[in-house]
Amino acid sequence: xPGRIVxxxxxxxxxxxxxxxxxxxxxPGTSRYGEETRRTRRGTExxxxxxxxxxxxxxxxxxxxxxxxxxxxxxxSMRIDIATAPGSHPRPNEDWTAVAAPSAGxxxxxxxxxxxxxxxxxDGCVHGVPWFAARLGGALTELSASRREMALADALAExxxxxxxxxxxxxxxxxxxxxxATVVMVRWxxxxxxxxxxxxxxxxxxxxDGEVRAVVDDRLDRIPRAVRRQAAATDALRNxxxxxxxxxxxxxxxAKAVTxxxxxxxxxxxxxxxxxxARWVEVFRxxxxxxxxxxxxxxxxxxxxxRVRAAESADPDGVAFRRGKPxxxxxxxxxxx
Length: 337
Description:
Blueprint: E1 5-8, E2 13-18, E3 41-42, E4 45-46, E5 51-60, H1 66-69, E6 75-85, E7 95-100, E8 108-115, H2 129-146, H3 152-167, E9 181-188, E10 192-198, E11 202-206, E12 212-216, H4 219-222, H5 225-228, H6 231-236, E13 258-263, E14 269-273, H7 275-282, H8 289-299, H9 301-314, E15 330-336
Parallel strand pairs: 1-12
Antiparallel strand pairs: 2-5, 3-4, 5-6, 6-15, 7-8, 8-9, 9-10, 10-13, 11-12, 11-14, 14-15
């Protein structure tokens, strides 16, 4: 049955396969784990390879409903499928993602970050955006997974504070473009799915009957396009009232995030996307959010990224589809909790 769209403004056994970041060189067309990797070309330039991982997590489904584990206490499973790819060479991928499943076998947490590309004249930081995203993402994963009593907004606030402290003595954190990131967080257990979205990454939640809800923070989209084309004007609205918010230096922005809770029985699957992957819907209009989730479930996250890359390559100068970058980092994470 076609999905309906609603917009909203263990590990005893685990198997991974995919291309490893920073891993050993492998034969063309295959990763070090034997998975096929795909390359596309723009003229004679080889596009950067993606990183893809697929996991099947199995554990004791304590407290899980019959639709998840058959019977409470029986062996349950969780599907996790991840793909991420840099937008252009030689700039590194500034996205960051992680999924953690506790060894007790009940629940999990998802983090998706999209690091904001710095301006050509620098951002006042000696480390760079990938460093920032890794530090912030690591803290978010630790706190959201190990401190389940801590609200997601509180975990984000503490993670921002820790990350800022890690480079406060070496970097100019007052710079308006100091390293920062958009955030998607999800945490689930047998009873509840919690979510948090800050800035322009997207979370999709699918109900058992196929309804797809897009959780978005649309404050950046509310700013007129003419203003967003001017870097100085946009920076004046960055992390400011009446503007938009990202995870950078100020822990208080965590309170500005879009948050919510959904009964676990009402969530069949979820997808986290950075805006480079969400282009398939938001920029190129190839389908709606229900189509996007259905594509990812059937063909995998890499298929969505491949289709975005094809659309970008067909309009490299942004004439038909105006956008900030011809190519953008793209990350897609699919989870059936």
